[in-house]
Amino acid sequence: MTPARVSTARILLTAMAIAALTGCTPTSPEQATPESPSTPVVVSASEAAEVVAVVDGDTIDVSTATGDTARVRLIGIDAPEIGRDGEPGECYATEARDFLDELLYGRAVELQSDNTQAETDKYGRLLRHVAVDGRSAAVLALEAGTGHEYTYEAPYIGQLEHRDAEQVATKAGAGLWTVCDGRAR
Known about the structure:
Elements: H1 3-21, E1 46-56, E2 59-64, E3 69-74, E4 77-78, H2 93-104, E5 108-112, E6 126-132, E7 135-136, H3 137-143, E8 148-149, H4 159-172, H5 176-179
Parallel strand pairs: 3-6
Antiparallel strand pairs: 1-2, 1-5, 2-3, 4-8, 5-6, 6-7
C-alpha cells in the first residue's frame, strides 16, 4: 500500500474514532429501518478503503486499510451491463461506468455493510453502501441517471432515498432516461 493510501485510511479511521468518542453513536440494528432514508447504516460494520478500479456502473474494486483488495457491488443501484467477450453492452453502460469512475476512482471511500442484506452476492462480491465525501455513491449515480434503483430480496437501509433519486433523474430526463428511454433494464 502506498504512503498516500495508508495516510488516507488512517485519517478516515481517526475521524470514525473521534465520532465515536464525541457521542456520535450508530443506530442499533433494531432501530434501523429500510424505510427511513435518514437512518444511518450501522456504523459498527464500516471500513475505510480506496477505489482501485471501476468495473461497471455498480461494481468497484477497493483496497482496504489492511492491504486487501475486494470487489464491491453497490447496494441500491443496478446499472446497465458492459458488453463482455465481444457482446454489445446495454444502452448507457459505458456512460454509467465512466460516471462512477470519475466519482470514485483513486478516492477514499467508506464501505458500510447493511444488516438487511447478505454479506456477499452470488458472484462473491461484497454488498456495501459506498460513501464518498459523506454522500452515497449509489444515490449520486441514480440522480445522474446512470441506473435504476435496485432492491434484491429485502428492502435496504436508505431505499426511499435511492428511489427518490431515481425519480429526480426520470423527471429530469437525465442520463439513460433520455438516451435509452429508461429501457436499460
